[in-house]
Amino acid sequence: MPGQDIDQKSIRQRPNYAVSAKSDEEFKQLAKFGRDELDIAEVEMPGLIALREQYEGKKPLKGARISGSLHMTIQTAVLMETLKELGASVRWCSCNVFSTQDHAAVAMAAAGIPTFAWKRESLREYWWCTYQCATWAADDSKEETGPNLIVDDGGDLTLLIHEGRRAEEIYASNQTLPEITASMSDEEKIVYELIGNSIQVDPTKFTRMSKGVFGVSEETTTGVHRLVQMANAGKLLFPAINVNDSVTKAKFDNVYGCRHSLPDGIMRATDVMIAGKRALVCGYGDVGKGSAQALVNAGARVCVAEVDPICALQALMEGIDVVRLADVISDVDIIITATGNKGIVMLDDMKKMKNNAILGNIGHFDNEIDMAGLATLGEEAKHKIKDEVHRFIVDPETNRGIIVLAEGRLLNLGCATGHPSFVMSCSFSNQVVAQVELWKEKGSTKYKNQVYVLPKELDEAVARAHLGKLGAKLTVLTDEQAKYIGVKKEGPYKPDTYRY
Ligand code: NAD
Ligand code: ADE
Asked: Which ligand has the minimum distance to the alpha carbon of residue 290?
């Protein structure tokens, strides 16, 4: 099988799953632990449970084969089981090498949901898992197939299918396989090698697969950027729903989720006293706002770096200084990148940092921090303190070093367990609504190969589903009041231009 590259002995591999469990006994224990935490999470995920109730007996996803590439956590397991309850067949991998909670992955495997994920995958293993997630075994008479819907977080599964199909087209025209060049990153080399191997086994796999996909729902800001670029270039092969920009996603998960899970990650990794420290947050968008607020609340003296004057002004209105990284790099104790951009903290910057200053990223990809630059310092500069926590000596003469979290990958999922269930219920309710919509419209021309957001009625419905759990009682408009402000009594209550 292409990309057959599982290095780790502890991985239990079966035709329908690959998860971390050294023995039958450990598999059983992890499955039970996962199930116990799932039961608790369900109580904290009222949006997903309301959707299960709303669709009880109706199976709106019957016939759907959903491949998901999204952090394999307990919260995601509740999403997977919700999709299954609504009638879908589900297949899963994680979208990050460090974010899997092994007990969640094992619980899914034990429940018969094909799952390919474990904590601390190598990059080669990660892409092997993504490939398995995309590959649906033949059922009886039919040939091997693929998903007809995708849940993506960051766009790696969508990328594999698009790049796979592009490479197959080139191969069909001139029999050349993807070229692996020295200028490619290690990860690019792995992806194109995998695609090349796949072509040699089945030269039309991704071409057939891409034709069967009715759409993708994308979870995060960075994944949406990728989709918009593909759509603008006329290269998107199927419709996409941008879940990130539902208000009940970006303004909750990205802000309040990070406000919870950023300090959780820093504290589990380092147990450093945050109060009194100087912290720099790079990027004051949704994630940066939640991150900065958490650090302020913990007593840090926070400043931010921004390129956007509006976000910079927002920071100032919150009493937070706006600075340039170069001006504060030698003074700060904690630096967090939250830009979704690349090349934010470079090796030369790191060489100026204080001894044992902490450097972490909460943006989707690991290119915000110059990990490639750090690697040039050599293995002798890298000291493992514990899993996902390393001290890099940046000045060998004085032994000055910096603490790097989760090897530059999103630290809230690498060093902790990501956002808590309640806020993920908001995000994932939007995912379920998006999947049902894409499946409902599969035969129609409603969606072109473009990127869409969900209507505000559905966004409001997601919020509404979460109020009861917190004991909220909404005020109801009178007929006169509704008329006066020009809305329907039952909503939507704001125009699409409203910014919350
Ligand atoms: P956003 O667009 O709201 O914010 C990013 C901000 O970074 C913007 O304000 C932008 O102006 C600023 N920025 C861009 N380049 C910069 C630079 N060179 N220096 C300083 N600032 C710069 O995006 P967001 O929703 O906040 O997401 C940020 C990242 O976090 C994305 O990669 C997203 O996918 C990811 N994300 C992670 C989690 C998580 O749990 N770790 C959750 C949600 C989103
Ligand atoms: N993104 C942030 N936190 C998460 C979680 N707990 N599960 C899945 N995706 C996440």
From this structure: 1
